[in-house]
């Protein structure tokens, strides 16, 4: 077998950032026990880091400067003076480096704190003023794939600049009152952008798609190529697929209209870039959208959604449900760089189970292993797609800091502990560096190298919580059960079924093997099932109502809880509510550790954590 290219890990601790090289022989399925080579480079202390898309460059931020390193020679190639730098990002081809810096209190808008550096020359190619910074909306300057134009969101408009003639000022603009963010399509060819406008004065919010070559210098917006409207959305995350043919918009509001979630509510919307389809993605289970990830090829996307245990579902690039991966204690999905393998994990306040799948040529997703990662925070696939690293890092967690290296089937290869670990990340590689490879026959046979895959985490049906008034009653075993890992209505396998558009209004599709119908072109989601466990046959039981999803839901009524299960159902509902509050508290703790000042109400929520944990334990649920 040909020698594998060298792979490197960035390991960042408070006093230094280092590149750790892993010897290729150690990464083979039948290789010797893992043993990282000595650290090749110990760099200066850094508050944050950012890679170029191809992994050839690494920028470290700290002490008022940004240093750029060539990751092949591991030599410093640039040093940029940037006092108060808060964030950085490389352009698509690595030609430029964008930075955002804090301004002096007395500087006003005269200090240009948003810069696009020609880092080789050591000078800004363009500099602008930006008052507000949001990590969710970073990078604030978005460049086209060919780096010819730069886009910047300002009040009520998106400005477009020619990078080859920045001194000429704004080349053209898209005037959108209240615009809240944008995302440039990664596809080459006709440049396209998506933008979000929140609701205002009774008018719904919307996401639109525009062609940049149709914009005029005056800013009068042309009709969007695609558009989807919705209510109850204070923020949106926009995600293009690799080919720029489809867009996913995850909307979020701070409150839940159904009063079931402590964390507000989320909806997932789909838009075809050519305007041929826009719809609400028919996630088959009621509850929050935990994670959404496009496959690297852009042919599929995966959703992890619903009240715990959350359901993971594969959709095609045409927004058709394709495969049901079942339910479990999960809130994260990660594709390998080649898109062959998929990891579904549950980190944060979840137990740390990782389920691993192999995408077959016939479209099936076959389970191939699992792992248990205690106190896991991050999961990152190696560029070769054969390994992944998990880490427990500060400030998210201050205990058990370290990282662990796993094989694609869940076999544990190596681990290192640190007193304080801030970041672990693979150096990216161009897509052609590592070809797609199927699972090794030796790995499928539980590892001929003597390192068997981790035993799968089997979701056993637990004994449900029984209220004191019903203990000792033999009929109590018939009560409904709540578990992070078990869903009595669960189903797995390939999805299919009749189109919802072919059904009469309000009719539910026939019950098939986890079938979920075609998405309805409206907001409001699918039908709701008892105790937050939405059976696949109940999903999408609505016909199209208001155009573009601004109207209500004509879906079928929710199923009533089973007779005699009211008390256990109440306990399950209470447990879900407690777990959602704990997840929000974990997020508040992380924000506080990052230096954000919390309000009085947020501090009260932090102080209530111990009581919530105690109540959860009284319900017999692992916290």
From TrEMBL:
The keyword Repeat applies. Residues 430-441 have a biased composition (Pro residues). One of its GO terms (biological process) is regulation of translation. Residues 228-424 form the Translation initiation factor beta propellor-like domain. InterPro entries: TIF2A, TIF_beta_prop-like, WD40/YVTN_repeat-like_dom_sf. Keywords: Initiation factor, Protein biosynthesis, Repeat, Translation regulation, WD repeat. The keyword Isomerase does not apply. Transmembrane segments: none annotated. Residues 442-463, 528-548, 555-570 have a biased composition (Low complexity). GO terms for cellular component: cytosolic small ribosomal subunit. Residues 430-574 are annotated as: Disordered. It comes from the Eukaryota. GO terms for molecular function: mRNA binding; ribosome binding; translation initiation factor activity; tRNA binding. SUPFAM superfamilies: DPP6 N-terminal domain-like. Pfam families: eIF2A. Belongs to the WD repeat EIF2A family. PANTHER family: EUKARYOTIC TRANSLATION INITIATION FACTOR 2A. This is Eukaryotic translation initiation factor 2A.
């Amino acid at each position: 077998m040909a020698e594998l290219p060298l792979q490197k890990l960035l390991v960042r601790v408070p006093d230094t950032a280092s590149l750790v090289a892993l010897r290729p022989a150690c990464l083979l399925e039948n290789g010797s026990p893992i043993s990282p080579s000595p650290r090749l480079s110990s760099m200066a202390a850094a508050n944050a880091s950012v890679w170029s898309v191809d992994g050839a460059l690494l920028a470290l931020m700290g002490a008022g400067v940004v240093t750029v390193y060539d990751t092949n020679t591991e030599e410093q190639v640039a040093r940029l003076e940037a006092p108060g730098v808060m964030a950085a990002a490389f352009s698509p081809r690595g030609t430029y480096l964008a930075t955002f810096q804090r301004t002096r209190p007395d500087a006003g808008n005269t200090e240009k704190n948003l810069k696009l550096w020609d880092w080789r020359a050591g000078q800004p190619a363009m500099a602008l003023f930006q008052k507000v910074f949001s990590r969710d909306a970073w990078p604030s300057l978005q460049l086209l794939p060919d780096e010819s134009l730069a886009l910047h969101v300002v009040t009520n408009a998106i400005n477009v600049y020619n990078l080859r003639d920045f001194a000429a000022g704004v080349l053209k603009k898209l005037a959108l009152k209240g615009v809240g963010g944008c995302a440039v399509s990664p596809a080459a060819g006709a440049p396209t952008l998506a933008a979000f406008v929140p609701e205002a004065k009774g008018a719904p919010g919307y996401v639109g798609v525009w062609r940049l070559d149709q914009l005029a210098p005056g800013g009068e917006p042309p009709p969007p190529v695609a558009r989807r409207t919705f209510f109850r959305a204070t923020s949106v995350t926009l995600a293009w697929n690799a080919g720029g043919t489809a867009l996913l918009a995850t909307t979020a509001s701070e409150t839940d209209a159904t009063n079931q979630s402590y964390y507000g509510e989320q909806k997932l919307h789909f838009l075809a870039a050519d305007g041929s389809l826009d719809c609400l993605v028919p996630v088959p289970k009621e509850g929050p959208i935990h994670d959404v990830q496009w496959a690297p090829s852009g042919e599929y996307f995966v959703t992890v959604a619903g009240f715990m245990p959350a359901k993971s579902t594969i959709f095609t690039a045409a927004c058709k449900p394709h495969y049901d991966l079942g339910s479990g204690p999960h809130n994260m999905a990660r594709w390998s760089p080649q898109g062959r393998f998929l990891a579904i994990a549950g980190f944060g306040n979840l137990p740390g189970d990782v389920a691993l799948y192999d995408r077959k040529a016939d479209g099936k997703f076959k389970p191939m292993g699992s792992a248990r990662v205690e106190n896991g925070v991050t999961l990152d696939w190696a560029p070769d797609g054969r390994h992944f690293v998990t880490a427990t890092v500060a400030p998210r967690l201050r205990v058990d800091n370290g990282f662990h290296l796993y094989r694609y089937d869940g076999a544990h290869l190596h681990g290192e502990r640190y007193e304080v670990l801030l970041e672990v990340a693979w150096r990216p590689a161009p897509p052609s560096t590592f070809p797609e490879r199927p699972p090794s026959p030796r790995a499928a046979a539980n590892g001929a190298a003597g390192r068997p895959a981790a035993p799968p985490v089997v979701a056993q049906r637990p004994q449900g919580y029984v209220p004191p008034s019903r203990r000792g009653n033999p009929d109590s075993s018939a009560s409904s059960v709540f578990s992070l890992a078990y869903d009595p209505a669960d189903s797995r396998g390939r999805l299919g079924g009749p189109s919802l558009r072919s059904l009469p209004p309000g009719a539910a599709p026939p019950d098939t093997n986890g079938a979920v119908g075609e998405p309805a072109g409206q907001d409001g989601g699918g039908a709701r099932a008892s105790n937050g466990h939405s059976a696949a046959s109940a999903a999408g039981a609505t016909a199209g109502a208001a155009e573009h999803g601004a109207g209500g839901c004509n879906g079928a009524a929710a199923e009533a809880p089973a007779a005699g299960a009211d008390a256990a159902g109440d306990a399950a509902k209470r447990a879900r509510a407690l777990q959602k509050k704990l997840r929000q508290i974990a997020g508040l703790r992380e924000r506080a550790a990052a230096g954000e000042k919390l309000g009085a109400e947020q501090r009260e929520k932090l102080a209530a954590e111990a009581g919530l944990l105690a109540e959860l334990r009284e319900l017999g649920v692992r916290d």
